[in-house]
Amino acid sequence: MTLKPIFDAIEKSAHRIRDAIANEDLCYSEQCNATGDMQLKLDIQSDLIIAEEFSKIAAVKAIASEEKEEEEILHPNGRYMIAYDPLDGSSLIDVDLSVGSIFGIYDGEFQARSMLAAVYVVYGPRLEMVTAYKGGVRHFIFRHGRFMEQNTIELGEKGKLNAPGGTQQYWPKHHKKLVDSLFAEGYRLRYSGGMVPDLHQILLKGGGLFSYPGTDDKPNGKLRKLFEVFPFAFVYETAGGVAIDDKGGRLMELPCEDPHETTPCFFGSRYEISKVKDAYGVS
Ligand code: F6P
């Protein structure tokens, strides 16, 4: 069975969400999501758009969304399970920075080992989409009414960008040392606070490090395994990069016991990840 109908549904959702971002009211709803973040009306609307598009595909068994407490069964006889963050970084919309949607497509269970493909969409000055599937990372830009394929994305051995997440005040000492040592080697700071554009930038500019450590205030980090971490780990590994946690293990080998579980995470090219392992004493 092919994933084409799922990719098509993601494309359709991307257009509809792009349109909603451009035209809809930004205001906060009365609700918080399962992780306690205030939901914007646009978060909820994007969630509904995606759920509606996936509900039309009989092969999609279940969906789990960052905006929903529990997973939802769409077609009990379907095969695929899709976890998504409908509008990651949505609090950046009011300052007109880029945001994104993130999707992980699984075979029968929401575990990293069963991931078949990952896709993300970037809503920036342009509409872009990246798919990781069957060993290749493909980059598409929406132009003249359709997504046009660009060059395949491959990470180099070493990059130039450093994107350190979390509140510095709460970083462990060894983490600060790592971040400082990369700057001392000439790495440049690139951090918008949106996971999608920040990781997209590192991928397209040939490499670097994106880190979100465990901190005093958030010992398991902030980023959610199912909705943010696994899909990007899959993309980075498929592009020839490395994605690990603070114990030095592959993020793609971590179990997921709760849909909203978080983990410290590090995504990068091989050189920067070897520096993470040295700094954390896990090499
Ligand atoms: O999880 C939402 C998110 O906005 C991510 O897109 C981003 O990487 C992260 O939070 C930024 O968090 P912080 O502001 O703590 O660095």
How would you describe this structure to a colleague?
By secondary structure, this protein is of the alpha+beta class. The chain has two domains: 4-152, Fructose-1,6-Bisphosphatase, subunit A, domain 1 (Fructose-1,6-Bisphosphatase, Chain A, domain 1, 2-Layer Sandwich), CATH 3.30.540.10; 161-280, D-Maltodextrin-Binding Protein, domain 2 (3-Layer(aba) Sandwich), CATH 3.40.190. 29% of the residues lie in helices and 29% in strands. The chain has helices spanning 4-23, 41-55, 173-184, 195-204, 225-238, 270-280; strands spanning 28-32, 38-40, 60-65, 72-73, 80-88, 99-107, 115-123, 127-133, 136-143, 146-152, 161-164, 188-189, 208-212, 242-244, 265-268. The strands form three sheets. An eight-stranded mixed beta sheet has the order 4-3-5-6-7-8-9-10, sandwiched between helices. Strands 12-11-13-15-14 form a five-stranded mixed beta sheet, with helices on both faces. A hairpin with a 6-residue loop joins strand 3 and strand 4 (72-73). Helix 1 runs antiparallel to helix 2 (41-55) and helix 3 (173-184) packs antiparallel against helix 6. The radius of gyration is 18 Å and the shape is globular. The mean pLDDT is 95. Residues 88-89, 165-166, 193-195, 222-223 line the site of 6-O-phosphono-beta-D-fructofuranose.
Give a summary of the structure in a few sentences:
The chain is α+β, with helices and mostly antiparallel strands and 283 residues long. The protein is built from 6 helices and 15 strands. Residues 88-89, 165-166, 193-195, 222-223 line the site of 6-O-phosphono-beta-D-fructofuranose.
